[in-house]
Design brief:
Helix content: 55-70%
Strand content: under 5%
């Protein structure tokens, strides 16, 4: 560990360090948890939410008709059901595991960076991390990708600090085995870069014959976790092993497909875009600092060279495959930010266009914060444009944060400034980093949840659930489009609705209806086709009086698919031929 700093205790001389540390985690908690449950679920969050609903409804998702596309949803369904049992079946509970994992991700990054560099680099990296687009987006996302990134960073922390003690080794191998079992290749591809980054520690005999008991202990715990993941009341003892093998096979097959997938050669350079998008809005200063590190590479210490080369290796292993998506590159984020922060704060003696990039970033953040402050003057125009009252969170929260960002830039006067004492960052770049943090909080923690009132998906599917829950499952029909996981979650139906596509399937579904009444959920553009199919069976549809519509501007007199791609729920009834 880095011993250049005084012991972190409650001594008076460490008070500024403690204040900075508390402030970083306080802001990170605000970024991750504020209005977390107000924003409606995105379509890509539906699998996690639906798995959580199935578990809370005592369904065995290993043996149900609904099968998630991503095998990880099965492994982590019970983990996600735990906060749901505490906070209720809502959006906050769906996203809580990712937000909590993001805090662990931040803590692991701070330990590792302080170990390799110093306190100022750690603070700079922490502020850039909690205000980066990748951290905020995936930290507030109902999924396991932030958990994967946290698993990777703590693998590096444990390996860097591994000692001869049994428990150090056992915990490290437990993290490696569970990560490999749950995420397959998506986690294994992180290990070469992590091992290289911590190469100097690995030479302290972490892997030798004394590691065998630790590996056995970690294997037993991992096996117990796998058994708990597939467990369901009432299954026989012989079902556990086939379930575990099937889930592991799915995990590795899916992760191999998403990790390598050689069939999409057109996306081979997509990782460059993903790398820059993850670090927004710090892509420019970090890129300039990394360029300076490359130019002065020979002057770096061994630890710093290992850190930088391991970061490049991590990027190559987890990002250069054609099928990679940007959520799987989250593990790269803290390492690139730490390398950039070391160059930006002057620790490595790098000065390749750093001053110019600092000037550009200060002007850019001043402009963005000025726009944020001016949001309040749009109040009179809001009702004219959107025909509704403006969200108060935006009208008050965004201007306050914009003004706060401007003050950070104004009072960033250099060495020993108030901004430097507050944030722990060198006065050269601390002001615009804090201003950027205020900007990202305003955009994604306040504005995005506040604007969810204009999204029509959640109220529509909740209305459909109210209408359809009292009905038998055979009287709820989806035509030409199966319900998405988000739709299933918000409808919260006790059974599985009927999904039909072909005329023969429609006729069979109608024959199973005992009463002369049912509900059909259909896209507006498919209503004419559905009418022609059911007309021959003596059924009619009340298209002119839909029970609910997804979009308020649906025009039932226009058959243009571009205008009528939204869902409606209508009543169908048996009538005269």
């Amino acid at each position: 560990m880095n011993r250049n700093l005084p012991a972190f205790d409650f001594a008076p001389e460490t008070a500024p360090l403690r204040r900075t540390l508390w402030l970083i985690f306080l802001v990170a908690g605000f970024v991750l948890f504020f209005l977390l449950g107000r924003n409606a679920l995105l379509s890509s969050e539906g699998e996690t939410a639906e798995a959580m609903r199935q578990i809370l409804g005592s369904a065995d998702i290993f043996n149900t008709q609904w099968q998630p596309e991503h095998p990880m949803v099965r492994w982590f369904a019970k983990i996600y059901a735990l906060p749901a049992a505490i906070f209720g079946n809502n959006e906050f509970a769906c996203r809580f595991p990712a937000a909590f994992s993001a805090l662990l991700f931040l803590a692991g990054m701070m330990i590792l960076v302080e170990d390799f560099f110093d306190w100022r680099v750690m603070c700079c990296t922490a502020w850039m991390l909690i205000s980066s687009y990748g951290f905020i987006y995936w930290g507030r996302f109902a999924g396991s990708f932030m958990m994967l990134a946290a698993w990777g960073i703590w693998s590096a922390v444990l390996l860097r600090n591994a000692r001869a003690h049994f428990w150090w080794r056992a915990i490290f191998f437990l993290v490696v085995l569970t990560g490999s079992a749950f995420w397959g290749m998506n986690y294994i591809l992180q290990l070469p870069g992590i091992i290289f980054i911590t190469f100097s520690s690995c030479r302290r005999a972490v892997f030798n014959w004394r590691s065998i008991p630790a590996v056995i202990f970690a294997g037993v715990i991992t096996g117990s976790l796998l058994v708990a993941a597939v467990n369901y009341p009432g299954i026989s003892a012989g079902e556990y092993w086939p379930r575990i093998l099937a889930a592991l096979k799915e995990s590795f097959a899916d992760s191999w497909h998403t990790a390598v997938y050689p069939g999409i050669s057109a996306n081979i350079f997509k990782n460059w875009i993903n790398w820059g998008r993850l670090m927004l809005p710090w892509t420019l200063p970090v890129t300039v600092a990394l360029a300076g590190i490359v130019c002065k590479f020979r002057e770096l210490s061994d630890d710093h060279r290992h850190f930088f080369l391991g970061t490049v290796l991590l990027f190559c292993c987890t990002g250069l495959f054609p099928g990679r998506r940007w959520e799987y590159q989250l593990c790269q984020l803290p390492f690139f930010l730490a390398s950039g922060a070391a160059g930006m704060t002057g620790l490595l003696g790098v000065d390749l266009w750093n001053r110019r990039s600092n000037i550009v970033m200060k002007y850019m953040m001043s402009l963005l914060c000025s726009f944020m402050t001016a949001v309040i003057i749009t109040w009179p125009l809001w009702e004219m444009v959107f025909l509704s009252a403006p969200p108060l969170w935006i009208m008050f929260g965004v201007p306050v944060l914009g003004l706060l960002g401007l003050l950070m830039i104004v009072f960033d006067t250099g060495t020993a400034s108030a901004v430097e004492r507050l944030s722990g960052i060198s006065g050269v770049c601390g002001g615009y980093i804090l201003a950027g943090t205020a900007f990202m909080i305003a955009c994604f923690t306040i504005a995005t949840p506040a604007l969810t009132r204009y999204r029509t998906g959640r109220p529509f599917w909740e209305k459909c659930g109210e209408i359809c829950r009292p009905l038998p499952s055979q009287e709820v029909i989806f035509f030409a489009a199966a319900p998405s996981p988000v739709a299933r979650y918000y409808m919260n139906l006790p059974g599985t609705p009927t999904v039909v596509h072909l005329p023969g399937e429609v006729e069979s579904a109608l024959d199973r209806i005992d009463t002369g009444d049912a509900k059909v959920i259909i896209r507006k553009m498919d209503i004419r086709l559905f009418q022609r199919i059911i007309a021959g069976r003596g059924w009619k549809i009340e298209e002119r009086k839909p029970l609910a519509v997804e979009a308020k501007d649906v025009d039932f007199s226009d058959d243009n698919p571009e205008k009528n791609n939204s869902f409606v729920i209508c009543r169908i009834y048996r009538g005269a031929l």
